[in-house]
Amino acid sequence: MKKINILRIIFIAILAIISIAAFIKPQRVETNLLRAFFSDNAKDEILVELSGKYSSNVNVLIESGNPDAVEKAKDEFVKKIDQKSFEIKSANFAKTLDFYKKYRNNLLSYNDYKTMKEGDFEAITQQAVDNLYNPFGFSLLPEEQDPFLLFTNYIMSLGDGGVINSVNGKYYEIINLEVDKELALSPSLTNKEVKKLIDMQNTLSDENVKIYLTGAPVHSYYASARSMNEINIICIISAIFVGGLVLWYFRSLRILVPIMLSLAAGMGIGYCVCALLFSSIHILTFVFSTTLIGICVDYSLHYLMESDLKKVIKSLTVSMLTTVSSLLILLFSGIELLKQIAVFTSTGLITVYCIVVLFYSFLPAQNSRQKFDLKFDKKFLILFALIIIAGLFRIHFNDDIRTMYKPSKQMLEAEKLYQEVTSANSNTSFVIVEGKDLQSILEREEIVSAKLNENNLAYYSLCKFLPSIKRQTENMTLRTQLYDSELNVFSELLTPEDLWNIKHFDKKYFSDEAHKNISQLNEFMLDKTHSIMVVYNVENPEIFEGIENVHFVNLPSEISGGIKKIRLVCLKILVPIYILLYLLLGFIFSFKNALKIIAPSVAASLFAICFISLFQPLNLFHILAIFLITGFGLDYAIFRFNGSKNSNDAVLISCITTVFSFMLLAFTSFKLISSLGFMLALGLASSYILSILLISKDSPLKAESINSGSNLTVQ
Fold first, then answer.
1. pLDDT number for residue 113
2. CATH assignment of 374-407+556-715, given 3.40.50.2020, 1.20.58.100, 1.20.1640.10, 3.30.230.10?
3. What is the DSSP string of 620-670?
């Protein structure tokens, strides 16, 4: 048996083993964007969990000029909600309220607690008397149970309970929903359920009642729906363009079959190897890796245009080795996303290379049109240099992840209205409180809440809903002192029996029932040893200094810091990548010629960065695009330096199809994709042009001279 047949059998066996092993092992696709940027250390994990905890909430805002219409629309909306998919958080408060009534003597609002702590019991009494004679005053409990309105004050301090708000002459009510945890793991299923909410919104909204939806799941639905429509259109246009170009050049569409099969195999094996090596695969790995596997089209085109492996084997091998080498350095980045991209693309490229080398010999020789050679005037180098110089002085970065997504006008208006109605502020931060158990966490939260109250800062925390045992003891002691001092004021309104019952209340603490009846316990707990306090408008985080195991977190700032860290890592990795590629090319072609081959990729990446810097800040995805430009650009340069006339045609066709597809991506509404698309289109076009300008077609190492074909000159 020939060696080539043995290699084919071994290759097929390896692919089969990898595929079966990956199929057996269950795999999960990670869609949380932050997990692409943060590692698995404890601090980063808390940030990811913190973000995820508040990214599964949907807020339903019901508006009308008639409060009765608001209430009616709310009831209709609640009836239609699938409570297997969404938990109605505001509805749980009724259950919590009933539970609180049983332990009302343990509860005091912070203002009442502070006033009584200072011994000003008369102020508490005066406030209760004023409310008694106020026609708009109300109490949640009868006078014989709560004459000082302490329970009412406590409940009102929570800021919850589904109360109708009035803003600018209109009435509003809010329904807070939380996506089921299992459902949240599947973006497609979540979008399906959010679509049902949107349908309900459209059905129940009319000229008298308007319903608005806000929250991350709603944004995700609209963004993904819009992106999918755009990408589908782009795929159709790209397929028509590529098919038309292939038909024009080869006068047949048959060669698309082996190209597509090899690409499918490369992507499939890339996925399988990632599935075996990683616990989950991030969705961004597919975005970047499937893009880079476009290099594989070059491998197929080069072989098909020659139909002689001996003429292209060196160029194919060097191209594969340089690209894989540059990617494998990402394994040392310490960043999960970059490691996955390295594994996915490297194994995909090697797979396609092996398919071309081992199996394309079965394909018949291809006929093509007359050959052509594209030329550019040397004056283009001056233009490149001027743009690079100008752009170098303008380079600046924006690592804010929020700039990657621009919501629709409809969603912006809904979010603005929600903030206005709820008096919320977009300047939201978090305080992470650590403790050995729940009681130590609550006591530490109460210390933090005192600091916040001293600085007149609004906050939302677990200790508001569940006082510590220590605070409950203090509250009951203060109540006793208040009753001893002031209860006689109500002697004419209450019977002696009522007065005795009020003074001799049962002193019992919250029991394990709290876990079953206070839903906020889960809302504010990250895990058994960490809780979250939501704080607003904190301009001076130093107020938390000195409080043990308390950490202030501004999520946008932390995320931006994490993205900046990755960006710097990527920039640092570029230097060893280029050194490695230079050494590898130097050993193959000589170190002098290696400079000629690597120069177009380096110059094209620098040109693309500088050009974009003239008009906008750079982001992480512009930097990640450099790795892709390097892979494609080296492909162009190697085949121009060491290829034949047919290789030049293959590179040109590959460049045209690739740049066209990426340029279409530049017009998508999702800035992450558009940034990547424009950067790649600009960088790859520049890389191709510079390979022509910087590498002479008369290189002594060329497989054959280029003496025929039409010349297209661009002045």
1. 93
2. 1.20.1640.10
3. HHHHHHHHHHHHHHHHHHHHHHH--HHHHHHHHHHHHHHHHHHHHHTTSSS
